[in-house]
Amino acid sequence: MDRRDADKKAEKLERTGTVGGGTAENTGAERQAAGAPGEKAGEGAPAMMEEVLRRENLMAAYKRVVRNRGAGGVDGRSVDDLKHQIRTDWPRIREQLLSGTYVPSPVRKVEIPKPGGGGVRMLGIPTVMDRMIQQALQQVLTPLFDPTFSEDSYGFRPGRSTHQAVSRAKEHVEAGHRWVVDLDLAKFFDTVQHDVLMSRVARRVKDKRVLRVIGRYLRAGIMEDGVVSPRAEGTPQGGPLSPLLSNVLLDDLDKELERRGHRFVRYADDFQVYVKSKAAGERVMASLERFLEKRLRLKVNREKSAVDRPWKRKFLGYRTFLGYRPTKDPKPKLQPAPESVKRLKWKLRVLFRRGRGWSIDRTIAELNPILRGWGHYYRLADVDGAFADLDKWIRRRLRLLLWRQWKQPRTRVKELRKRGLDPGRATTSAYNGRGPWWNAGAQHMNRAVPISTFSQRGLVSLLDQHRRLMRAS
């Protein structure tokens, strides 16, 4: 496509966006690949930037960004403003992208609590215009890189999922590899070295303008409390390019593991290697730590890494174990990891605290989407004990909510009698002097508010849902 045709196509695009700002310098491998600031793609080099800016690609990127919604960036503009922004600013931004002079805006720093209250995770939220440009880049780069990735890499790839990764891990254990090297990369997304990453991107991307804009996205500053700080390393989570770039970097690790003939599974920066003995696992752990630090300049978190049995570690929220009677049924089984159950309870406790004044119907309405999603994710579990235990715990929390709402003993007597308890039993229970949690699990509350009450009000049962999903599969 020549320049004039590309201009005509872009003018027809329905637009939205934010204007790039800030400054950046080319460094390392990107400087070598990018050439002078005004230089176009070299003679014979693929016109990748023109493909990125093709109308159909941009429309797909725009629709994806709008569908994903998300918070605004440093300019405060939302996805609802994107169409108007494109109409007003896109010709200039497009010209800058074609000439290699576009500079992205800083990202907005956001910290979100990690599941279970274990610290915070830092996100870098790009402006909606930069999200659209990143999405357009990702759509062109993925078909270029993805076919070269390992078969044992599952994270953020088309047609691949966490469930496939978990099933693959189970296969390795079933094949007799019952020791796992569980390596945790210390703050992976915050410590990626830009020159190491860009050198790997440049292996397949020859358009200097694309290399230049990717490098600038990596180095875009981080704004916190109105102050922009430069970024010398890391690829903060929050933009569409970040997952693909993480796979590009860690593909070297995958290829090294394949070269050595190891069984492994990787999902983004979560990966495990399966071996047949503890001694082999310790050798693999030591050699991989050296490889990661020397070749990719990534640090291993030794406190969280270990060589252990699979049933003592978790992978993507699941735990593999050998069943309750391993001598009779030696095949490994899957179950939600205890940490996953704790995280769900933590999340639900927050909801229950927030909803102390809600009706039971509203509380159930808030609970159900969470329970459906959790049950669907853990549908690969081979045993249902965790689902039954969670159902009991949730019903007890709901009974606790009712007991607290009744407040006064006289009200509790009235409510218990209304639900079928005889006057003497209702009075004794209401004035027993025990705490709310004890009463929520006591026989009088189980009789007054039986399982059928919650079923009639539409409460999702994790156990029933799991059994339905098992039958359907």
Describe the structure in your own words.
It is built from 21 helices and 10 strands. With 473 residues, the protein is an alpha+beta fold. It has helices spanning 3-12, 28-34, 48-52, 55-68, 82-99, 128-145, 162-174, 188-191, 194-201, 208-219, 241-260, 278-295, 338-354, 360-377, 385-406, 409-418, 423-430, 436-440, 443-448, 451-456, 462-472; strands at 107-113, 120-125, 179-184, 222-224, 227-229, 263-267, 270-275, 306-308, 318-321, 333-336. Helix 4 (55-68) crosses helix 6. A hairpin with a 2-residue loop joins strand 4 (222-224) and strand 5 (227-229). 53% of the residues lie in helices and 10% in strands.
User: SS-based structural class?
Assistant: alpha+beta
Largest sheet: 4 strands, mixed
Number of strands: 10
Note the beta-strand portion: 5-15%
Using only CA atoms, what is the Rg? 27 Å
> What sort of overall outline do the alpha carbons produce when their principal axes are compared?
globular
- Which stretches of 5+ consecutive residues score pLDDT under 50? 1-45
Distance N to C terminus: 48 Å
Q: Percentage of helical residues? A: 40-55%
Rounded mean pLDDT is 86
Biggest sheet, spatial arrangement of strands: 2-1-4-5
- Specify the number of helices: 21
